[in-house]
Design a protein that fits this description.
- This protein is α/β, with parallel strands linked by helices.
- It has 12 helices and 17 strands.
- The chain folds into 3 domains: 3-100 and 339-361, Udp-n-acetylmuramoylalanyl-d-glutamate--2,6- Diaminopimelate Ligase, Chain: A, domain 1; 108-130 and 243-331, Udp-n-acetylmuramoylalanyl-d-glutamate--2,6- Diaminopimelate Ligase, Chain: A, domain 1, CATH 3.40.1390; 135-233, Alpha-Beta Plaits (2-Layer Sandwich).
- Helix content is 30%, strand content 29%.
- Strand 14, helix 9 (297-302) and strand 15 (307-311) form a beta-alpha-beta unit.
- The longest helix has 14 residues, at 208-221.
- The radius of gyration is 26 Å and the shape is globular.
- The two termini are 43 Å apart.
- Bound molecules: zinc ion.
- Zinc ion (ZN) binds next to helix 11.
- Zinc ion binds next to helix 11.
Length: 372
Amino acid sequence: MSVKLNKIIQTIEALAPENLAEAWDNVGLQVGSRQQSIKRILLTLDITADVVDEAVKKKVDLIIAHHPFIFKGLKTLSSDCEKGQIISQLIKNEVAVYVAHTNLDKAPKGLNHYLAEIMGLENIKTLEPSNPVVYYKLVVFTPVDASHKIIEVFGKNGAGAIGDYDYCTYRSSGTGTFRPLVGATPFIGEVNKLTCVSEDRIEAIVAAPDLKNLIAVLKRNHPYEEMAYDVIALENGGLINENGLGKIGVLSQPMEAADFIASTKDRLGLVALRGAGKVPDIVRRVAICSGAGADMIGLAKAKRADVLITGDLKHHDGQRALENNFWVLDAGHYGTEKWVTDCFKQILESGLEDACPEMIVAESARDFIVNY
Ligand SMILES: [Zn+2]
């Protein structure tokens, strides 16, 4: 089965849009063209010379990686340096490279969500939500027989999207009055006569960036010459944005710390697990952040987690955990992020269904840090 690379990118970015990535990051298509046809994909955490050799040997058309291969400005593409060699090998063999990094980390159902599910967490929420989106309540008054069309316009333009639901609107019925003045061409009623009409009041929340466009589309679709509507600022500040780093959730069965260590090693397939700080008696609430997330120690504690699982723990992170009376576990950068290949697989299989190309997990990708 072959599919255009553009379709693959759209499938990933429907879940992890590029604009979620951190400003310092470099994500997206790094080698190749969106117009390429893709039959076989290699999935990997990192792109190394070995991974590219494997890609060529296995005749893949695309490598999808988590860590950017081209990160900081390249000064040369000379094949006298390893990066130049790798890039020329990719181009010669027509192997494209696509990267989803911090955008996938921060996507509501991205890598951290996948990791939280592997850890058996329930009621999973974002640990550090990105800037919350401001929401408004938009109210539109419409004749009853146009209500369905107006609700369609709301839903199609992003209004009423709450969590895993869309088209969330509320409709109430009443009587509207108006008097067309000289010069008006009313849909209903006559000039200078007070008219009473059965109307519906339709309301839904709408994110600030979508508001202007939604009002314009509603006006084009509304039967009245002058659409009556209210934009109401929400005192509750809108909805929590589920984009952001890390996740927090609860174990279905609380467990003692020793059992939790054994369970973490087992679930994440680890031979070693380091930790620091104050070990709790019972673990119930678990925070998790793939890669290097020791900065989340304070936040995880503030959100009443019993432990934070992350990677790349440094000496002073351990000290901070101790000072905070909090427990942090280091499952390794690789240990928490090797799951990205399964995560990509799941996204593409569910997004492309029967059109999904063959996917191979890179056998040559490995942890750079070795336990002796
Ligand atoms: Zn990483």
